[in-house]
Amino acid sequence: MSYQFDFSFLAERWPDFVAGAWLTIQLTVLSIGLGFLVGTVCALVRVYGGAAPRRLVGFYVEMIRNTPLLVQIFIVYFGLSSIGLKLSAETAAVIALAVNMGAYTTEIMRAGIQSIQRTQLEAADCLGLTRLQAIVHVVLLPAMERVYPALSSQFVLLMLASSITSQISAEELTAVANNVQSDTYRSFEVYIVVAVVYLGLSVLYRFGFWAIGLVLFARKRRLGTAL
Questions:
Q1: Cβ-defined contacts of 178-184 (< 8 Å, 24+)
Q2: Please, what are the domains in the chain?
Q3: pLDDT at 223
Q4: pLDDT for the residue 116
Q5: pLDDT in tens, 103-162
Q6: Mind spelling out the 3-state secondary structure of the chain?
Q7: Cβ(143)–Cβ(178) under 8 Å?
Q8: What is the structure's pLDDT at 66?
Q9: Which residues of the chain carry a pLDDT beneath 50?
Q10: Rounded to whole angstroms, what are the CA distances from 23 to 43, 140, 168, 206?
Q11: What pLDDT sits at residue 136?
């Protein structure tokens, strides 16, 4: 059996792939930012909150981590529209991805926060730091520094998982690939191209997070340790 590869469709369809990759970046950057904010707040609640808020956050984390992302996207997109709240595919994708990211970030950040000794908070009180200053400088930054590699990996995984949003017609990279292959009937070539683009995006994201880590964690940069 012989197969003749033909990538000639790229001459006309490359702008579609660029647009799809750009939308993928937009969706995931927004989702990562929102998800990190949600996850950090929830992690603080799980460590320092009262019994009822801790249970509520625990329920959220377990519910999200034990259900498929695709089902969560369908609930946001189709479920909310059935009760009158109609969202665009892109908006629904960002919300679902952010909620999903928030649950995983909660557990990652919780591990980092719990690694900070309570005596450090007591020392911050003795130095006259406000509670907010102590949380930000004594707890959050050192905690994030310790779990940053895990966070970065989870962010990259979210970018790859964003391909699922093609199921609600968000015109990201995988949706573009589906459209191109249905027009050209060159499925093998189309998905090879998409795989290469996702690989490039993964490298770009990892480099970006590495650079962000150098800025945020000056101590590691001075010591020359890996992020």
A1: 179/16, 180/9, 180/13, 180/16, 180/17, 184/9, 184/13
A2: 22-171 (1.10.3720.10)
A3: 47
A4: 78
A5: 999 999 999 988 877 777 667 677 667 666 777 777 788 888 889 999 999 999 999 999
A6: CCCCCCCCCHHHHHHHHHHHHHHHHHHHHHHHHHHHHHHHHHHHHHHHCCHHHHHHHHHHHHHHHCCCHHHHHHHHHHHHHHCCCCCCHHHHHHHHHHHHHHHHHHHHHHHHHHCCCHHHHHHHHHCCCCHHHHHHHHHHHHHHHHHHHHHHHHHHHHHHHHHHHHHHCCCCHHHHHHHHHHHHCCHHHHHHHHHHHHHHHHHHHHHHHHHHHHHHCHHHHHHCCCC
A7: no
A8: 96
A9: 223, 225-226
A10: 29, 31, 14, 18
A11: 72
- pLDDT score for 5: 87
pTM: 0.88
Instruction: Tell the residue number behind the tokens 């249905």, with chain if given.
Output: 182
Alpha carbon distances (Å) from 25 to 54, 59, 172: 33, 30, 9
Cβ neighbours of residue 39 under 8 Å, at least 6 residues apart? 101, 102, 103, 104, 105, 106, 108, 109
